[in-house]
C-alpha cells in the first residue's frame, strides 16, 4: 500500500522527532481522561472554544516549517526566527526522543562505561507512556475507521494543517502567546 500525499509527508512519518511533534498534537485532540475532564470544567457552554494552546500550535509550526519545509528547500529561512513554545522546541530538537531511547537502550559514554540504563525509568513513567501509546493507537484507528468524529478539536487542527500546507507561508498563532 502506498502512502498518499507528498513524499516529504511520508518522510515525516518515519522521522522520530516529527513523530514526537505529532504526539503533542494527538495528546491535544485525544487527551487522557483527567485532561478531558479539566477542559470540560473550564469551558462554559455557549462560549467560544479556547484557542489552540501554544505548545500544540508550535508543534504544528515546527513540523511544517522547521522540518518538512526545510526538506523541501534548503534555500529558505525566516527573516526573524520565531519564538516557539519551549516544550515544542525541545521535542523538535530531539529531547523527548532521547528520553525514549534512554528508556529502551543502555547508553554508553565515549570511554565505554555505562552512562544510563532503562532501569532509571520508573514503572509509573513506563505505564504513562504505554497508556499514551494506547490512546494514540485508539485515536488513529478511530480516525481511519470512523472518520474525524472522535474529537471536538480535530476540525480545528485539520483546518490549521490545511492552511499550513497551502502554497503560502503561514504561521499558526495561538492567542495565548
Verbal overview:
By secondary structure, the protein is mostly helical. Helix content is 58%, strand content 3%. The chain contains 8 helices and 2 strands. The protein has a two-stranded antiparallel sheet. The chain is globular. The relative contact order is 0.16. The model has no long low-confidence stretch (mean pLDDT 82).
**How would you characterize the largest beta sheet?**
2 strands, antiparallel
* Low confidence ranges: none
Span between termini: 41 Å
Which percent range fits the helix content? Answer: 55-70%
User: Could you give the order of strands across the largest sheet?
Assistant: 1-2
Summed over residues and divided by their number, the pLDDT gives a mean of 82
Strand elements, count: 2
> How would you sum up the global shape?
globular
What class, by secondary structure content?
mainly alpha
Discrete helix count: 8
Strand proportion? under 5%
What's the order of the H and E elements? HHHHHHEEHH
| Cα gyration radius (Å) | 18 Å
Question: How would you describe this structure in keywords?
Answer:
177 residues, 2 strands, globular
Set down the secondary structure blueprint.
Elements: H1 7-14, H2 16-29, H3 33-42, H4 54-72, H5 86-92, H6 95-104, E1 107-108, E2 114-116, H7 123-146, H8 154-164
Antiparallel strand pairs: 1-2
Condensed summary:
The chain is mainly α and 177 residues long.
Amino acid at each position: 500500500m502506498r502512502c498518499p500525499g507528498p513524499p516529504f509527508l511520508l518522510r515525516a512519518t518515519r522521522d522520530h522527532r516529527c513523530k514526537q511533534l505529532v504526539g503533542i498534537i494527538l495528546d491535544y485532540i485525544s487527551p487522557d481522561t483527567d485532561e478531558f475532564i479539566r477542559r470540560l470544567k473550564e469551558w462554559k457552554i455557549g462560549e467560544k472554544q479556547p484557542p489552540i494552546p501554544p505548545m500544540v500550535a508550535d508543534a504544528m509550526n515546527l513540523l511544517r516549517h522547521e522540518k518538512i519545509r526545510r526538506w523541501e528547500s534548503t534555500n529558505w529561512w525566516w527573516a526573524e526566527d520565531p519564538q516557539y513554545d519551549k516544550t515544542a522546541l525541545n521535542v523538535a530538537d530531539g529531547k523527548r526522543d532521547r528520553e525514549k531511547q534512554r528508556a529502551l537502550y543502555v547508553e554508553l559514554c565515549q570511554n565505554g562505561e555505562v552512562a544510563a540504563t532503562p532501569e532509571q525509568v520508573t514503572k509509573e513513567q513506563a505505564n504513562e507512556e504505554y497508556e499514551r501509546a494506547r490512546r494514540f493507537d485508539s485515536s488513529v484507528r478511530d480516525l481511519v475507521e470512523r472518520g474525524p468524529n472522535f474529537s471536538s478539536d480535530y476540525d480545528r487542527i485539520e483546518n490549521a494543517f490545511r492552511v499550513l500546507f497551502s502554497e503560502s507561508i503561514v504561521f499558526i498563532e495561538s492567542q495565548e502567546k
